[in-house]
Design brief:
alpha+beta; 4-stranded antiparallel beta sheet; globular
Length: 507
């Protein structure tokens, strides 16, 4: 027994101090911030160009961002395995070009950059370009002129005219001419807007970029409309009519030039994966440069693709929730329905937020328990019973999402983040517990699971905890050491001390 305790203490102590040591090394020697807020918000943007060869030589051109609107590009990385690569500088800006003589399979090219925005500055007030009116058919031209005349009567200047035009195109009940124009053009509505503005004598161009959302994958290029009112350039969102640059909008291209051009390929697409972190700019720039020098100690998930970084940003929070489960069960004595079901519920709460998540969970489980009690009268086997519950849970999720959408409750649409299998198994376990132990035990274990899940969510959603787990993943070793030590605890739990409090008084 003594040898076992000694070995456990040695292992736990080694893990704990190894994790703390690596953390201090990265904080002191490499400049990683221990507290969020010490550094700027740095975005890692990974671009993926997918295409299929169509025969002959291949040339892929990607227009590179120019750092507009106060954005600063800290570092760039291009993946060009098997391709010739060069960056072309011209009056219009920089263009990345991949070339290859022959290609016989689908290919993905990567461009990764790290950017931040020290100052939110407006776009440069450049001279408006020459207006070129697109050629229209007679009926299209007539509808355009009638629509322009109608909106001119309702507007006082170019700004009000553009706002009325955008709102007219987004209205459920549109003017007949606006409806005709949107239906007669094969191009998107933004192109139709530019066409109408050109015939109205208002200079306009596209402003393309990325809406930055942490952890977002398969993001596509978003387009805004930029028009000149005679004095300044004004940005307006063509989808909702909101004026001004949206927050966290990274400007990639200003103008009507194409961002991606592929020669010798087909079915091309451009997607983005996004991750936000709080590392200082100098640390971000120095990480890859010093990777070989400190490759034994300076390990970081920043070397992974951005899509995987977003996944690990959530996965690295699971050990924190596991520690909460261990503490609440072994030290406090809280009963839960399963060991790690509270962890999965807490992960779902991270997506739904706490109050909507609690409401959705209680509603789904309550309805599921009622349906499960009805299924018990059919004397089904366990496999069939659980399968039936899974189908019912999925149907309830779909119904909840549809009803919430119709009622305008967008937050409830995140019901899909709840693990379907876990919900079904929870309903099954609680129903069996109800039959064997009674309602009281169901309330104890169900309430304990929700309590632990809420505590886990509050800890996982803490900004400091999220910062430490993502930037110092070696701290997980220290958490493992604490869990191993707690696993040897055989004393009284807090709930037991309260339970036997009368015996202490009698003594």
């Amino acid at each position: 027994m003594k040898a076992s305790k000694y070995q456990m203490g040695l292992i736990a102590g080694s893990l704990f101090f190894f994790g703390i040591g690596l953390t201090l090394y990265k904080a002191i020697s490499l400049g990683f911030p221990l507290v969020p807020g010490e550094s700027r918000q740095v975005w890692t943007i990974e671009s993926k160009i997918n295409f299929k060869p169509s025969g002959g030589p291949v040339q892929v051109d990607l227009g590179l961002p120019k750092g507009l609107g106060g954005w600063v590009v800290l570092e760039e990385y291009f993946a060009s395995s098997g391709f010739g690569f060069t960056v072309i500088n011209s009056a219009k800006g920089r263009t990345a070009r991949w070339t290859r003589q022959n290609l016989d399979h689908s290919t993905t090219l990567y461009y990764k950059m790290q950017v931040y925005r020290p100052v939110d500055t407006p776009l440069e007030n450049i001279p408006p370009p020459e207006i070129k009116r697109p050629r229209l058919e007679k009926d299209q031209l007539a509808a355009t002129e009638r629509l322009i005349a109608l909106l001119r009567e309702r507007s006082s200047d170019d700004r009000s005219f553009v706002s009325l035009l955008v709102n007219e195109f987004n209205a459920e009940s549109r003017d007949m001419d606006a409806e005709f124009l949107l239906g007669s053009f094969e191009e998107p509505s933004l192109t139709v807007l530019q066409t109408v503005l050109a015939h109205a004598g208002i200079p306009a161009q596209r402003l393309r970029g990325i809406r930055l959302e942490d952890g977002r994958r398969r993001q596509t290029v978003s387009s805004l409309l930029e028009y000149h009112d005679g004095e300044d350039w004004v940005v307006i969102d063509p989808d909702n009519g909101q004026v001004g640059m949206p927050p966290n909008f990274f400007v990639w291209e200003r103008g009507n030039d194409t961002i991606l051009g592929v020669i010798g390929g087909r079915d091309s697409s451009l997607e983005f994966a996004l991750v936000s972190n709080s590392l200082p700019a100098k640390t971000v720039m120095g990480m890859e440069q010093r990777a070989e020098e400190f490759n034994l100690l300076d390990f970081s998930i920043y070397a992974l693709p951005v899509e995987q970084q977003g996944v690990f940003k959530v996965l690295l929070l699971i050990p924190v929730a596991a520690l909460v489960v261990v503490v609440m069960r072994l030290l406090v004595g809280i009963k839960t329905s399963g060991t790690f079901m509270p962890v999965l519920i807490a992960l779902a709460f991270l997506q739904t937020t706490l109050l909507p998540g609690l409401a959705l969970f209680l509603i789904l489980v309550s309805i599921g328990l009622y349906i499960r009690s009805w299924l018990s009268y059919m004397n089904l086997l366990l496999v069939s019973r659980i399968s039936a519950v899974i189908i019912v849970v999925i149907f309830m999720m779909a119904a909840t999402a549809i009803i919430s959408y119709k009622m305008g409750l967008d937050r409830a649409l995140t019901v899909t983040f709840f693990p379907t299998i876990i919900l079904a198994w929870t309903i099954e376990r609680m129903s069996i517990l109800w039959e064997e132990e009674g309602v009281h035990e169901v309330l104890v274990q169900g309430g304990g699971s929700l309590l632990v899940a809420v505590l886990s969510y509050l800890l996982m959603s803490n900004r400091l905890v999220e910062h430490l787990t993502f930037n110092f993943p070696e701290l997980i070793l220290s958490l493992l050491a604490i869990i191993l030590v707690l696993g040897r605890y055989t004393g009284y739990r807090l709930s037991e001390l309260y339970r036997f409090r009368d015996l202490d008084r009698q003594q």
